[in-house]
Specification:
Strand content: 25-35%
Helix content: 25-40%
Largest sheet: 5 strands, antiparallel
Keywords: Metal-binding, Nucleus, Repeat, Zinc, Zinc-finger
Strand order of the largest sheet: 8-7-10-5-12
Shape: globular
Main location: nucleus
Subcellular location: Nucleus
Oligomer: single chain
Structural class: alpha+beta
Organism: Aquilegia coerulea
CATH superfamily of the largest domain: ZPR1, A/B domain
GO molecular function, one term: zinc ion binding
Length: about 475
Amino acid sequence: MESTNPIVDVGSAAEAISAADDISSSSAQPLHEIESLCMRCGENGTTRLLLTRIPHFREVVLMAFECSYCNERNNEVQFAGELQPKGRCYKLQVQSGDQTILNRQVVKSDSATIKIPELDFEIPPEAQRGTLSTVEGILMRAVNELESLQDERKKVDPEKAEALDKFLIKLKSLANGEMGFSFVLDDPSGNSFIENPFAPAMDPALSIKYYERTPEQQEALGFQVEAQSGDGDGGTKHVPHGSVGAAAFQRSIAQGNTEDFANSLFRYSAPEEVMTFPSTCGTCGVRSETRMYVTKIPYFQEVIVMASSCDACGYRSSELKAGGQTPAKGKKITVLVQNKEDLSRDVIKSDNASVTVPELDLELTSGTLGGMVTTIEGLITQIGENLDKVHGFNFGDSTDEFNKIKWKDFKSRLSKLLDVEEPWTLILDDGLAGSFVSPITDAIEDDHQLKFEDYERSWEQNEELGLNDIDTSAADIYYDSTTTT
C-alpha cells in the first residue's frame, strides 16, 4: 500500500521507514514515493522505496526509479540491518549444462565484488549496486551493459571493440550454461548471499569463507578507521592478575560474552595477567579495547582468550586461539550424547573446525560459526540460529511446498537433539587440532563416550590452511647461524 503522509525527499522516507514498528511482514509496510532527478535526461522522475524482509535473512530497502520523460528505469537493494562482524566470500562452482545452478538467487550488496576467474572478469561494487537477481541474471546484466556502448567503441577504437565482442561471446556462453566456471562473490560487509537449495545440508558446489576486514575495507564501507597510538609496545597494557582481583578479571572477560563463558574458563586455571590493547570495532569502526590472556587447559593445550567490547555500539565478541606451534596432525573428536548431562560438556571450537551430526545429515564446514567457547547445548542452539540467518530463501514465495516441509522437519529434528530422546553423535574435525570437548569423568581415559583421533592432513587440507606455502628455510638458516656463533 502507499504511504498516507507525503514524502518529499530521501531523508523523510528514511525517517518514515525507521519509524516502522513491524518489519517482519512486507504487507504491513507502506510504499513511499519521492520525486528525484533523472540522471539521463535531467527531468524529475519518481523513486519508490519499500522496507521489507527476506525471510530468515536480512531487512532490506527496495528502491525503484522510473522517469516518465525518457523511460529510464533502475532498481537497487539497500540493507537496513547491521554490518556483519566478518566479511564473506562465496565461491559457486557452476558445471556446464546445469541450468539449475544458473537459477540460484543471489543477493549482491553495494559493497560486493563478483569475479569470474576463468575469464579474468570482475564486476566491481559500483557496477551493479544492490542487486537481487540470479547467477544468470547478473551475467546477462553485465553483457547488456557492456554491449550498450559497443557502437561508440567501434567508431573510436575498432580494435578494442572487436576484442570486446569476442569476450562477450564467452560471457554469454557462461550465462547460457555452455561452459563451466567459478562464480565468486566477495563482500567485506558480509551482507551478500547465494542461495543453497540443499539447506540445511552442505552444498557441494558452494563454499563460504569468513574473514576479518582490513582497515582499507573498513574505511571503504564508510567507517572511520582511527590510527592506533600508545606506548612503545603499541599501547598494550599488562595488568597483573592479582592487582585487578578475581572479580574484576571475571568481569573483564565476561565483556565479550555471557557470564557462563567466564565461569567455564575459570574451571580450568587462572591466568597470570590480562593484557589490554587498543583495537577497532568490527561493526562500527570506532576505537575500542581488546582484552587477552593465555591459559592452559588440562588434557588440551595452551590457548589464547581474547574478548572485545565496544561502548559506542554495544557489539561484543570473544575468540579463542590455540597457542604454540602448528601441530603435525589434525584431530577428530567424536562425542556420543546419551543424556542431558552430556549437553553440559564444555566445547572449544576453533574457527578451522567443521561440525557434523550424522543422525541429521548435517555438516558445517570450517569457518561457518567461527571460534567459540560454549557447551554442546550452546553449540546446537547456535547452529539453529546461524542456519536461520544464512539460508535466507527457504520460505520465499517461490519455494515449493516440499522444500518448506523439509526445512521445518529439519528444524524440528534439530531442536529434538536438545531433548536427547535418542542418543546422537557430535563430530568436530579440526585440521589444526585446536578444538576440544571436556570429559565428564575425572580421568579422560575413563570417558568411553568421548573419542579423540589424530590423523594425517591431506594436501588439500594443508593448502586450505596455507601450510603448503610456508617457507621457513631463511629463518632456519638464520637460527642455525646465531646458535653456532
